[in-house]
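Following up on my earlier thread - several people asked me to post the actual chain instead of describing it. Fair enough. Here it is, all 846 residues.
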Amino acid sequence: MLVAHGFGGSKADVDGDARDLAARGFAVLTWSARGFGASTGQIALDSPDHEVADARALVDWLAARPEVRLDAPGDPRVGVTGGSYGGALALLLAGYDRRVDALAPVITWNDLGQALFPNAAAETPPPGATPAAGAFAPDGVFKSGWAGVFFSAGLGPGAAPPLGPVTCGRFTPEICAAYTGAATTGRLSPETAELLRRSSPATVTDRITAPTLVVQGEQDTLFGLDQADATARQVAAAGATVKVLWYGGGHDGGAPDQAVRDAIGSWFDFHLAGTGPEPGTGFAYTVASGIRAGNGTPTSRTVTATAYPGLPGTAALLTAPLALDGDPQVVVHPAGGNPAAITSLPGLGGALGAAAGRIAAATAELPGQSARFATPPLESPLTVTGAPQVRLTFARVPGQPGPAEAVLFARVFEESPDGLRTLLGGAVAPMRVAVPADGSPAAVTVTLPGVVAPVEAGHRLVVSVATTDEGYASGTDPAVWRVGLDGGGLTVPVVPGGSVAADTVPFWPLVGIGAVLAVALLAWLGARFLRPRPGVPAVDAGRPLEIRGLAKTYKGGFTAVRDVSFAVERGTVLGLLGPNGAGKTTVLRMLMGLIRPSAGTITAFGQPVGPGAPVLARIGAFVEGPGFLPHLSGADNLRLYWAATGRPPAEAHADEALEIAGLGAAVHRRVGTYSQGMRQRLAIAQAMLGLPELLVLDEPTNGLDPPQISAMRAVLRRYAAGGRTVLVSSHLLAEVEQTCTHVVVMHRGRVVADGTVADVIAGGGAATFAVDEPQRAASVLGALAGVLSVQVDPDVAGTVHAELNGTPRADAVRALVDAGLDVTAAGPRRRLEDAFLQLVGEDRTP
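Reply from S.P.:
Thanks for posting it. Predicted structure:
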């Protein structure tokens, strides 16, 4: 394995990646590229004659190593990966050296000229019908901010003094001259274009035949998703195996997390070492959930699709057309391009984290410099997956100044009903458009920045076109332009797929919470020892919850709950499951002391529960829907609620509760403006105040969208993992099955099942066996005493289903083996839904 580093780094920066791959059994080689680390060379920007030639020499060296497997004399079995500068090197090396057997380029460029001089406007739509296909039009706008960051990284002291002017640092004279020309003129000269073209993987992607995993960041204003899209299209067109992975980071959002690193490792396991499962040729992308945890970091889920749409042999890209409203508007480019809008801070975007999009919304539109066109409020949620497109017109304003070309910047905001805006992806689409001198409009298709952005129902998308951007050279001449829509609307790419719930609740913040709880517990025990309260035992020897013989009969003789008994152990998530009217909420109201039981007992942590019981201070609850003062903010509601408990403010742990529940900045808005889902999350935060040892939630996922429900599952499991306990009442069978470790099923006021989820599912005895001879296996199972029915599955080869009716599954397996049959699998057939319907007497299976 060759592991290349990023620009400005050295081999030391990829030490962790190298060790991860070495742990998988690879022989790993890292090195410092020319001009970096201890190298005495000059930076040539991944030139085929310099950095790429160096890498080819390293492949030669690997071929002579005894620990490296050879495919042929002088041909080692070799893979290459790297991020950014190292990712481009991986692609270029694979294009120039056929000995590369697999590669995984990460957050890198395809066309360096387009990356540094992008132009998103073209008279016709981009030819690539893929999610993030860029316009890649000629004569783009100089990305001066990022280019300056790059160049300054090569000016610092190196292992050898500069060979030329100090102003050129460790760059070759050709690179230095190219940057100087671009920085002083803001234009791409033919010489610079040729220099950047030679350092572009686009020149060799048609030669790459090795399996290629293309990894790109969704938060990246340096190398956007359009660069990865072009690489995937070109390599796939050459006949190579291609898989595409977008993750929630990038040059503005952070390095790949462990899940991405594992995916890269698995790619090489299969394609290089010949081990592990087939990674496929699919497409995966990350969707932020809107729920935040750990220093405001958004939690997320991964969506997987069977293929990257638009590649050879795959389905066509799906798009969602959205209408846009707005009359033509006049915008002004100030002399000198100052003041300029700020949409991103090159090199610092990651430090702003999730706040970057909100900050940019406030700094990206200066008075008189922007035209805005908006969609109607969305009727249903929409996840933008790629680069939207819009047709725009640009014209001169009679009597007003304007050069031959307009330099403009388009971007997309999400706008909530209360006017709160977020810049999607934190990126802009720069364009240079020739505008006719006779006043007629120039019509172009503008490809907006590629993003992955979930947009809530009721929110709008706003296309904004500005005359300046701090990160680009917008020119110095004053100009006035009229910007309008050229019919149609906004075309948004959509890539459906299956969600994989990521374990996105950060581990270390939860460790911190656990430490805080441990300290609080020690302090509490000390206080009890020194000054015990009357009626509360100083020793806690009981279960978090134990209910025995509970019953509730109302006036008039209606019995809602009868003889209910169950216990909840520490560290578990127990689902109280049942149809509407089963008595679940009544049990919870008695548990919280809101109503008195007619019979039976409830104890928590060994102490009796009743109205006003001291032990209720150790229980947090959300029962029968949220109730808040609508004219106050969410934060004020929580503060007043905690004050009503009479406990010190320091014990509230409000920040931790808010982080876990994921309210973010919305906690400071009036509750009257909240959606149902936001009110639900505020209620969950209220229940978590004080980080109670027993958390009781009644239908907590009502009003939450699928990403929020997915994140809430992880929250509840993590909450219980530290020794605390969660009791969740729900009628959503799938959620209980995915979230809970144990389940209590109620029907008509009684408990009809109690145990682990697996035990309840298997309780009816329905079992499935995978065997080599299904017909003979059916005969053997049918002959067992007690077995009710046996069926050979006509759709799944080698599969037999049996209703064992109490016969132990182990006895059935033993009988099959004794009969000489091979049994490769045996397990319960049913889902929780099947068990539930049978338990409540509504199983209508014939």
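The chain has four domains: 2-286, 319-494, 545-758, 764-828. That should answer part of your original question.
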